[in-house]
Structure formats: C-alpha cells, structure tokens
Amino acid sequence: MNTTRDTGLVLYHAWASTCSQKVRFALAEKGLSWQGHVLSLRHFEHLSDAFLTINPDGLVPVLLHDGFKLRESSVINAYVDEVFPDPPLTPPGPRGRAQVAMWSQFIDDVTSPAIKKPSFAANLGPHLQTLDPAFVARMLSRMPSASIAERWRDAAGDGIPQAQIAQSLADLRRSLERMTTALADGPWLVGDFFSLADINMAPFVARIATLPQFDLATDWPQVHDWYQRFRSRPAIAQASIVEQQLQQTA
Amino acid sequence: MNTTRDTGLVLYHAWASTCSQKVRFALAEKGLSWQGHVLSLRHFEHLSDAFLTINPDGLVPVLLHDGFKLRESSVINAYVDEVFPDPPLTPPGPRGRAQVAMWSQFIDDVTSPAIKKPSFAANLGPHLQTLDPAFVARMLSRMPSASIAERWRDAAGDGIPQAQIAQSLADLRRSLERMTTALADGPWLVGDFFSLADINMAPFVARIATLPQFDLATDWPQVHDWYQRFRSRPAIAQASIVEQQLQQTA
C-alpha cells in the first residue's frame, strides 16, 4: 500500500472487520505493500464456496505470503513482525514477546467477543432483519462455528438477548480498565514500546467509541488519549484515510 | 518434577484444570523441575484475595519465572519453549511457529470454550448444586470475567442450557474433524514434529473422552490413535501417573 516493492503478500479481508483492521494497521506500520481481496460480510461472501476453500472457518482475515496461508489476525501479525522485522512491533526478548502475547490473548478472549454483541445489535442486526429470513437461515447454515452462527441468528432474528449485551458491556469495561492500568506506565500498552498490543487493541477501541454506552473522553481519558496518539501516527493516519474512502465506496 | 536443577519456575495450577495440564505436560516434556502451588477450584481458591493479587483474572495457570509473571497457558508454553529450547516443541522458522500458533488459537477459541459447558454440566455443576446458593453467589461475584461467571452461575443453578450444550458439542466435533484432517499427514498435528499443538490439544481430548456423547475409538479412530501415542510418550506417561495419584489425594 505504501511501497511498491513486491512483498508476496495477499490479504483477504473486509473493510468493516475489526480483525482485518488489525492486520491492515500492522502492514501499514511496516510500510508493506499487499494485494487485497475484499469480502462483503453483509453479502455473506465469507461463506461462499470459493472463500470456504481458502478458509474453512469462514473468517477473515487470511494472509498468503508467497503461497503460505495464515489464518487468525493475531497469528498473522506476529508472523508479519517476525518475517518483516523493520520496524519491530514487539519488544525484544522472550519477556517482550510474552507481554505482547498476553495482550493479544486478552483481546482475543475478552475484548473481541465482547464487542461483537453490542456492535451486531447496532450495525449488522438491523441490516440482516431487512433480508428474507429463509435466505439468511440458508447462508448461516454454512457457518462452520456453531457459536458464531448463533450470534448472527440472534442478530437477524429477535436481536441479541439483553442479558448477553449487558455481559458484553461488562467485559468491555474490564478491557478499558486494564488499558487504563497499563497506560499509567505508558504511553503505550507495553510501556514506551509501540507494539502489536496497541495495534491489536486499537480497532476494538475504535468500535467501542461508536457505542452510545461509552464516552471515552469523559470516562476513560487515558484510553481516549492513547487512541488519539495511535491515530496520529503517520502510517495509521494515512491508512485510516484510505480505509474511510474505500469503506464509502464498498 | 523430573530433575532437581533449579529452574526458577513456580506454577500456580489446579489438578482438574485442562489449561494447567497443558503447562504441566510442556514442563514434563522439557524435563524441567518446578515448584507448585495447587488451587482447588471447587473451593473457589482461585477467587481468594491472595490469588486475585497474583492474577486479577482469577484464572489458573500462572507461571513465575525468576519473578516474571506469565498468565494464559498458551502464552506460558510458547515462553517456556523459547527460554528452555531443549527439546524444541515448535517446528523451526516463522512458518513452524505460525502453524503451532494457529492450532493454539483454534484450541483457545473453539475447543476450550466448547469443552467447558458439557464438562461443567457433568462434573462441576452437581458439586456446586450441593452448596449454599448464597455462598456460591457471593463467590461468583468475585469472578472478573462476566462470561465465565455466567457459566458457573448456570452450572450452579438450573444447569447449563441444553441449546448451549448442543452448540458446544458441535464445536467439539469440529475440533475432532480438524484433528482428523491434520493427522492424515501425521503422526502429530503438525506433520512429523511433536509440538505444542499436540500438548495444547491433549488435555481437551482427554476430557472429551470422558463425555458420554463421544466414543473416540469407534467414531474418531485417528484421534484415538493419536491420543494413545501421546500418552505413551515417556515424559507424558510419567507425568500422568503423578497427576492421577495427586488428584486422588487432592
């Protein structure tokens, strides 16, 4: 994207996918060019025969590097950081790697599942409810993960149950609390080293900021300031402008 | 456990915890001694003030290495493999590491959450239901994760909903299918390299084997054979004998 040298990188991604955004931001910070294949989740393109051949999990992103296929955004970003080490996005040594890995695991286990329910309720659900229910049911029968299929079915049907929304909001608050604690030793999540911990968290904070239940500037000022710092990084700012333009034409 | 040299390793763990078992097996394969602190989950020792100071997530295992604190069993095992590289439990190079990391992520995202609901229904639930409900509620109010607290509450109350059990069983079948596909290129999950992918999966297969809904020898013969190979490894066999003895006295 930023350079023209051939990196051998091919990314299958969706503009609205937080996990795709993690990878786009890592590639941007590295200044790596990549060939993109965009999927529309709203049109169930991730459940097409063609894409299920590429990823039987039916999930974006997928990165190909010289033909080697990588699934899972946290795995992809760790791989990219290892194969393209300049600039490094992991603090040096086993302890540095473990500190980033603990953040990535927390994001994958707590923050990422938690954002999906209120975000689906606000964004994807109203769209799915305009579609023919039989068509939606047929598409979702193709979803390999039983738990992800259930979330889509809830969003398309009577909506995500309120008890689940409340539980998700609690887990999001816990994410913001953990960030606040870490940022006392900031300016980044792992001290003064800008890392994949920041990149992997940023798309979720961006999504949290769109939810009416959160006012980051007032209630989570350290996280708000961190996100402003993140967005102000030249590579991220440039990638974000491109993202906004492409999302509008998607 | 197997040697007497001082490794600087201190493990907080529970004998009945699948994620603790992942770490004990990795340490056994490395032949590393460790000092252990055992917690009883049935007695809510992971939610004590003392342990929440060690891990604010209220989860085992936690590994201390010369005072450096590591949470999350997959992170712990990757760290141990890096710091104590002999014998290696990750195939060489970035691609080898990515292959193991993709398995670990699948286990953490799909297999581990899926085993907990049928396993709680069969094991922990009946125990929790014998306790004073007010005491259980007070303990569970100390659980930091809203989603984990809910699973314990369901198990202690009217039981895990049948729809959730069915969804979990579907995700467990998906785990066994993925293993079967990989083992066609076996004998291990990443080809002929015995790795953390095998170690991180094994405790879940052991738990699946205890569920009445699964007959591995008949319906999943490749997984059954793999698990027999796993159990026959000298370090694993020895660790398993110790585990059985200690679980009986716990």
Task: Describe the model.
- Two copies of one chain form a homodimer.
- The first copy, chain A, is an alpha+beta fold.
- The first copy, chain A, has eleven helices and four strands.
- A four-stranded mixed β-sheet of chain A has the order 2-1-3-4, with helices on one face.
- The model of chain A has no long low-confidence stretch (mean pLDDT 93).
- Chains A and B meet through β4, α3, α4, α6 and α7 of A and β4, α3, α4, α6 and α7 of B.
Question: Which helices and strands occur, and which strands form pairs?
Answer:
Two copies of one chain form a homodimer.
Chain A: E1 9-13, H1 18-30, E2 35-38, H2 49-54, E3 62-65, E4 68-71, H3 73-83, H4 93-128, H5 133-140, H6 146-156, H7 162-183, H8 196-208, H9 216-219, H10 221-232, H11 234-249
Parallel strand pairs in A: 1-2
Antiparallel strand pairs in A: 1-3, 3-4
Helix pairs in contact in A: 1-3, 1-8, 1-11, 4-6, 4-7, 4-8, 5-6, 7-10
- Report the count of strand segments of chain A: 4
List the uncertain runs of chain A.
Answer: none
Assembly state (oligomeric): homodimer
Protein structure class of chain A:
alpha+beta
State the strand order across the main sheet of chain A: 2-1-3-4
Straight-line distance between termini of chain A: 18 Å
Q: SSE order of chain A in H/E notation?
A: EHEHEEHHHHHHHHH
Alpha-carbon Rg of chain A, integer = 18 Å
Helix content of chain A: 55-70%
Strand content of chain A: 5-15%
Give the mean pLDDT of chain A.
93
Shape estimate of chain A? globular
Biggest sheet statistics of chain A: 4 strands, mixed
Largest interface: A-B, 33 and 32 residues
Task: Supply the number of helical segments of chain A.
Answer: 11
